[in-house]
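Q&A log
Question type: sequence-to-structure
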Amino acid sequence: MGGRDPETGRKSNIHIGPGVRFDYFMLDLHRRGPENPEETYDERVIEVRQDPNRTPHLALVAGAKGKRWIYATQGMKAGQIISTSSHIPKYPTPGIEGNAYPLVELFPTEKSHVCITEAGSCGEIVRQQDDYTIVKMPTQHEYALKKTCMATVGKLSHEDYRSKIYGSVQMYRRFGHRMAGSEHKPKDCYQGRRIRPLPPVRVFAEEKLPPPPKQKFTFTRKQLSGLYGNAAVDPVQELAAIYSVDVRLVAVSKTFPVDSIIACYEKGQRHFGENYIDELELKAKEFASRGIHGINWHFIGRLQSNKLKKICEIPGLWCIETLDNKKHADLLQSILGSDKKPLKVFIQVNTSGEKNKGGVEPEGLDELVDHVEWKCPNLSLIGNLFFLF
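Response status: OK
Response body:
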């Protein structure tokens, strides 16, 4: 990301730039060997090469368990045999460069962090203390690590990394660096810090567990209404308890075939919705021809003046949920007449304000409700409920 935060896009590291895209190598930082003193896990160094994304060089090694990339030490060369052992001898002998022995992981696990990863750096064993080994880091800080932690003998390669001459500003930027200002002395500059004594030995006894993942909470009516979680009250059931009405589930069939609707009907579903008049007419007639009665159809599509008569003639029509103007209300009133059963209707309200969507504006809702209740006796407005689209 060139020194920028991947989420906010803000610059989080002023010394890192985008640079040129390089290949990224998957590195194995953990070397585990047998604990038997007479056995070692041997690997042959196949290749030592530079890594554009890390400061030390990398070595491709191969053993009985396969190939992997590891950090190369200062004197590591192709063809060299390196050994790994987890045995701690009673009288340690000087190790061979490139070999790995216990003790510079923070903890003796395969998921542990590695302390020293910078080019040309190394740790120094200062002393032994009970079950811990005191190691001086390149920062001069001292860590108390368990003796079973793994370490590699030698110094990381590419020691002249800091003194490398790039030759030009463009080449410096090519490797992903940003040009910095003048160097500041640690104490004389106004940005400098006081030289403080080194902290005491830091003991790494037990590996800390990762923090629990952060969770996002949003206050909604459901959460503010009472219990939340397994004991929460379903909002539909809560409204039904408040208004003392039965909960009605409407299954919108749309492009589903008649056989699928029949399967739902056999399971006890009785209310179905359709948003196209022609499809609703075909499905209703198909059910009537098969002798299936008891289905309640809901029309949830946009009303058209020239098709209102066809809607009213559909067998099993239970209600219209998209009434949104006085014109359609008056036409339905005249089509139904006084000899037919009143038709249930819902008033559709356009709460989003989009012109391409149907529905009455919230400001004209009261006027339309009064018109349906007082001037359209053949229409039965179901309480004060209206359909939100």
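Response note: The chain has two domains: 41-203, 225-388.
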